[in-house]
Amino acid sequence: MELLAYLYHLITNFRNRLYDKKIFKSKKIDDIEIFCVGNITVGGTGKTPTVQYLVQKFLDEGKKVAIVSRGYKGKRKIDPMIVSDGKNIFATTKESGDEPLLHAINTKVPIIVGRDRYSACMLAKENFDIDTIVLDDGYQHRKLERDCNIVLIDATNPFGGGRLLPLGTLREDLRQLKRADEFIITKADLVDDREIKKIKKYLSKYKKNISVAKYGVVSLKDLKGDRKPLFWVNKKKVLLFSGLANPLNFEKTVISLMPSATDRMDFLDHHNFKERDFKKIMKRADEMGADFIITTEKDIVKLPQNFHMPRTYVLKVELTMLEDNLFQQ
Questions:
Q1: 73 labelled as ligand-binding?
Q2: Annotated binding-site residue? 114
Q3: 42 appears as a binding residue in the annotation
Q4: How much is the average pLDDT of 88-96?
Q5: Per residue in 36-49, pLDDT tens?
Q6: What does the domain layout of the chain look like in residue ranges?
Q7: Which parts of the chain are beta strand (E)?
Q8: Fold of 217-316
Q9: 289 marked among binding-site residues
Q10: Is 43 annotated as a binding residue?
C-alpha cells in the first residue's frame, strides 16, 4: 500500500507540474464563465447540494446557467450527452450517473455529462443560451480552464488523514490547495467550533475566501414525492440505507431528528440497488421493528421505477451558509 501511495503521489505531482509549467495546456471556452466545485479528498464533501445552491444563487443574479458533470459510473453510448434541457429529462441514471439525474430533478437548468469536460461544456454552449457553467467535481480535471475553483473541505474529515490514496483519502497532495480560489468548509454543524477554527487556520495561508456551511434537513418525502413532517421521526425506530462515501454523516443528520433508535445498512458508494438488496433491507427493518426506512436523494434516483417498499422515505437536505464569504473581494 505504501508503494502504491508513493506511485500515486509521483504521478499526480508530475501531472500537476506539467500543467503549472504550461507544458500541458488547459483549453478555454470564450464567453462562458465557469465555476468549478470540487474537493481534494475522495467523495462525501457535499458537492451535489453545493452545486444546486450555486445554481440558484446565479439564477437569482440573472445569469443563464448550465451544469456540467463527468457523469461518474454512467454507461452511455453517446458522450458527451444532454441529460436535461431544463424542462425534460432525456437520460436514465444508468446513462448519466446518479448526481446529474438528481441535478435534473432539483434544478431547472440544462445538465450535460461527459468524460471530457471541455467537450461537454462546448455541447452546453452550442445548444443552450447560457453564460455560466457550474462544473460538478472538476478540480482535478485540468484540461479545462475555469474562472473560479471552489474547493469543499469536509469538516468531519478535512484533509484525508494527510495521506494519498490508497492509504488515505487524498486525491492529490495538500499543496495543490493553492489552486483554489474559494474554500467552503462543509458539514460544520457536525463538529465543534474548535475544529472549525483549526481548519480555518490551516487554510488561511492560501489567502483565499473561506465560507462555512452546513447541510440542513428541509423535508421528509414519501416515494411519491409528498412531503411529510419531520417530527414524525421523533421517538421512532429508524433504519437507514444508503450507498454513500460517508454514511456516518447521513446517520448523524437523522439522529438530529431525535429518533428513539437507529440502525444503518451501508452499501458501496454509487451502489446500484438490486431486488436482493431490498429483501435484506426489509428483513433488517422487521428485525428491529423499524417504524421508518429512510434513504437519501442520491440513492432514490437509483431505485427502479415504480419501486415500492413500505415505510420508506427520502431525506432531503440543502446547503445553508453559516458564514458566506463567497466571491468577496
A1: no
A2: no
A3: yes
A4: 92
A5: 999 999 878 899 99
A6: 25-207, 217-316
A7: 33-39, 65-69, 81-85, 110-113, 132-136, 148-154, 182-186, 209-222, 227-228, 237-242, 261-266, 292-296, 312-323
A8: Rossmann fold (3.40.50)
A9: no
A10: yes
